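Q: What would this chain look like folded?
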Amino acid sequence: MLSFQSVSKSFASGVDALSGVSFGLARGEFLSLVGPSGCGKSTALRLIAGLTKPSAGTLAWDGAQPRTGFVFQDAALMPWASVARNVRLPLELKGLPADADDKVAQALALVGLSGFAGAYPRELSGGMRMRVSIARALAADAELLLMDEPFAALDELTRERLNDELRSLWASRGLTVVFVTHSIYESVYLSSRVVVMSARPGRVVADIAMPAPQDRTPEFRLSQTYGERCRAVREVLVGRGAEQGSTSP
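A: My prediction, written as structure tokens:
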């Protein structure tokens, strides 16, 4: 779907966010970007979304850029608007297709919020607000979902539950997902691939496949395979194996 080709990004402030980043994104993948704070993970998402341009290198799409939804760390909901109106926002910006109400209803059903269409953000828990944010992206028929630490502020049990729901949505909708997280454990549980980035300026120091099992049940978190994969990512993050530039679990 997309190829980063020696992409670098510098800002007018003099900050070099990314340096020579290269990796590919296949259609239908769940790819996580992991690395220390300030390594350019969020900058990479913004480049994919077209919100900023690279200073050097290219982003090459295989065909037309797909319909893209962006889910931020903060749910970024309009506090004065109902859940349904928040989900309708991207459709309103597109001129409200005739089936807008159906799309909103379907998106809320997918995230388990069918009974909350008339509620307001202040009436929802943090996890529910994040579900609304995901529904907003799905209502616009996103093919590519960009997620910037969406569950970072949630408690562990809510985070695990939303991880399960997100993987289910990814599989059932045939989405392509790029997910930014600081959590090794979250990245290994969610992903088909984990790209590990160095400290700023961000470079790719490992590209680690996360193959079967396809179904990541709660029992998978207790398995030897899961522990080994988490250890592989951790070793790269603390510097071991980074000299080779890539590793395998």
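Residues 240-249 have pLDDT under 50 and may be disordered.
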